[in-house]
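Anyone able to model this chain together with fructose -6-phosphate?
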Amino acid sequence: EKGGHRHWMAKEIAEQPAVLDTALAHYIHDGAIRLPEGDVDFSDVTRIVMVACGTAFYACLTAKYWIERLAGVPVEVDVASEFRYREPPITDGTLAIFVSQSGETADTLAALRYCEGRARIVSVVNVETSSIARASDVALPILAGREIGVASTKAFTCQLAVLGVLALKAAQDRGTLSAAEIRSHLEDLTRVPALIAQALNLEDDLSDIARDLSEARDILFIGRGPMYPLALEGALKLKEISYIHAEGYASGELKHGPIALVDDSVPVIVFAPSDDLFGKTVSNMQEVMARGGRVVLVSDAQGLKAQPGSWHSAQMPHAPDLWGPLLYAIPAQLLAYHTAVAKGTDVDQPRNLAKSVTVE
Ligand code: F6R
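re: yes, here you go
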């Protein structure tokens, strides 16, 4: 039933090229955006609020980078348990987006209820019959298929794919990108599943690295720009299933405190595709290395060539501009998974966690 995999999580990680193909085929037709579940129009939107919990929250944080850059609309992202009690003002022209795999998360549903009658409500869900889907003006399915492992994997990348399409729709509606630019970003997005299939071939290398990680007591993850939310997600995934203390930081924040933690017992995972932020992230990485920190550099051929000398490295395929977070989710997941396997924890049913958090 697990298709020859040892755990549901491993099966769900491996399924990602296929489910992403399905999700993208649903939203992209003949190279153009198609939102079949009722239109989402960004023309008159003045502000977007995105609300979710956990991994879905990190998908929202990633989407903020895309939407603000591509469409120029301000995006606020909040965890649902904070949003619902803060009672934030919802100004005219606000579009509210709720992201939830289960569609049943109590805090996210309560945050949605708060927005009812105040904003147009779009949800991005895996379970199409869920409470959150039913309470939304438009519910966009991520089509990941049933996710059984408690630690979310394929739902995360499918959320990113749908949010990526939404960001491009926002740019299209607002005329901030040309038709040719949109087409080219969509083409890049449809190439991601094949790149993910290539990244999955790094599994043996990543499992060797994970064996070393499994000895650590604390692990840091750093990234910049859209790789920052991925650093948060990498740390969450690792702590959930391996029970190793892990934190994600924006690379530039290290020197504002967290670097005090670094010594030769602390592995630091660096997500740094060779993009225009690469040089900045690398200089933060060098500060870590100067303090004896053990760097695991996850980058592409160009990046690794420019920055040899890390403790470990993983050579990723080159990520298309914008869509790096989808691709780099794979090493984040595989490092967490193999670290947990090396520690012998219950990967699919980690202690104290439930798949669907229907109580606050
Ligand atoms: C992490 C994880 C959780 C969920 C969170 C929200 O691997 O699975 O952090 O992402 O509980 O759940 P949904 O998406 O169902 O609202």
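The pocket of fructose -6-phosphate is lined by residues 53-56, 100-102, 105, 108, 151-152, 236, 240, 356-357 (CB under 6 Å).
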